[in-house]
Amino acid sequence: MSTKYSNFNLLKVEDIGDSDSDDQGDQNPATPPKKSTKVHKHSDRHSNSPSKRASKQQPQQPQLDFKVDPVYHKAQPGVEQKPQPVHKSTPVHKQKPVLEQKPEPIQQPAHKSQQPQQPQQPSQTQSIPAKPSKKQAIVTRTIWTFIMVFGFFGCLMAGHAWLIMLVMLCQSLSYREVTALFGFKTEYGVRAKNSEKDRWSTILNWYFFVVTNYFLYGESIIYYLKHIIFADVYFIQLAKHHRFISFMLYIIGFMGFVANLKRSFLKRQFVLFCWVHMSLLLIVLSSHFIVNNILEGIIWFWVPASLVICNDIFAYVFGMLFGKTPLIALSPKKTVEGFIGGGIATVLFAWGWGTIFQQWKYMICPVHDLGTSIFSQVECVPNPVFIWREFEIPSMISALLSTMTQRDITIIPYTPFQIHCLFMATFASVVAPFGGFFASGFKRAFDIKDFGDSIPGHGGLTDRMDCQFLMGLFAYVYYSSLIREAHVSAGQVLQTIVSSLRADEQLELFSDFKKYLESQNYLS
């Protein structure tokens, strides 16, 4: 009996159904069902065949879908060959629903296999509108380019005050972009997202920004606008104690930082403290020197900034036409040919560009009234660098030039400012681009393309000001060291004496100054 049962165990459910449909099964309908039921009972005890288990537990099939699925996968070839319907045998009727339900579990895996292909369709449709998005980006970039150009020229014509506000706006946006990178893709940023927010640190960051600007711009206004500041009773007190007030404001911020320290934020807060002060040094201090250039004369701000833009354009053009040799690893698109070609073109451009603007007193005169604009009547004694001079050409060179041009050329008119423009153009071509390389390395460290999105289509404002900060710092140092002359008026000196000295000190100063004038024979 065990041998027979073991042979029956090897049979599939389909084989049992087919044997019941023969003529022999019709003649003896009672005997085969008994054997089949015995085989099923015995196989349930001794056999692990999934087909037998499915035939026995078929009435509870909705609860055993996951166990019956392997049977359907094995019986998958039987789906193509549909069995003949059987009506006489009761076990066959019990097995028939199993055969009818085979297509359902077979279709489910087929349906699941098609699911991974469905996400590919939207991906293909998303790649189709690539050209419109690129065109839209070009249109946006072009529109904002014109907005920036016309906005800049509008501030240039509006006067010194508008240019100063423009610089302060640029430094504020750049400071926001740089400090925002602290929590971007760093371990401190991840920890900050996973823990409670430290809002006081953000408030203190901007507090230090405001205090630094108060100190730096206060120094500039007091220096260049003494005749206005010391004419007011309240401004006199602020001007006399400006540095002490600035220092105490900084101390308040320092105490607030220490009081806000938390154990869970210690390392992050101290690193952020250093980050903020480096941003103040590189951005706010450089902007302060740019503002000083504006107060010394708009030309000391306008020409250096124009030379940086000019060098950027010519370097791009020469790089596109002749560029083959990479210049620096941080910027693979920068080439040696573009670097050299842009430098030569910038130096030639500087000579004519400086000649055009040195003729306007609105551009060369230091500020005496913040309400001055291009429509104002500006009068001042020009700095000697803007006065025309004559360079006498050597006789041999003069004869050669006269022969070539058929004219008598013995002198070349020039101004010292034109020569200074050549030096500034050299710096703008050789050194200023390294400010951009520095910014590129900084962005690569954070694996980002732009510092932000302050300017639509152009990225962050820091991406446009990286070279300008370095160039503005150089222009201030160059001017204050080699060109600046004392332009303090007698009224400013008198105002300082009246506001700063006591009555006895004023009399002592008058006596000493009188003796000096008599010794120089100015009073005789």
Automatic annotation (TrEMBL):
Location of this chain's protein in the cell: Membrane
Any one GO molecular-function label of the UniProt entry: phosphatidate cytidylyltransferase activity
UniProt-listed Enzyme Commission number(s): 2.7.7.41
Entry keyword annotation includes Cell membrane: no
Domain of life: Eukaryota
InterPro entries associated with the record: PC_trans, PC_Trfase_euk
Topology of this chain in the membrane: Multi-pass membrane protein
Biological process terms in GO annotation: CDP-diacylglycerol biosynthetic process
Transmembrane segments: 143-169, 203-224, 244-261, 270-291, 297-323, 335-353, 417-439
Region of interest called Disordered, as start-end residue ranges on this chain: 14-133
Biased composition annotated in UniProt, kind: Low complexity: 107-129
Keyword field: Lipid biosynthesis, Lipid metabolism, Membrane, Nucleotidyltransferase, Phospholipid biosynthesis, Phospholipid metabolism, Transferase, Transmembrane, Transmembrane helix
Main subcellular localisation: membrane
GO cellular component: endoplasmic reticulum membrane
Catalytic activity: a 1,2-diacyl-sn-glycero-3-phosphate + CTP + H(+) = a CDP-1,2-diacyl-sn-glycerol + diphosphate
Sequence ranges of Polar residues compositional bias: 48-63
Cleavable signal peptide: none
Amino acid composition bias (Acidic residues), ranges on this chain: 16-25
Compositionally skewed regions (Basic residues) per UniProt: 35-44
Pathway(s) per entry: Phospholipid metabolism; CDP-diacylglycerol biosynthesis; CDP-diacylglycerol from sn-glycerol 3-phosphate: step 3/3; Lipid metabolism
Keyword field contains Lipid metabolism: yes
Family named by the database record: Belongs to the CDS family.
Name of the protein described by the UniProt record: Phosphatidate cytidylyltransferase
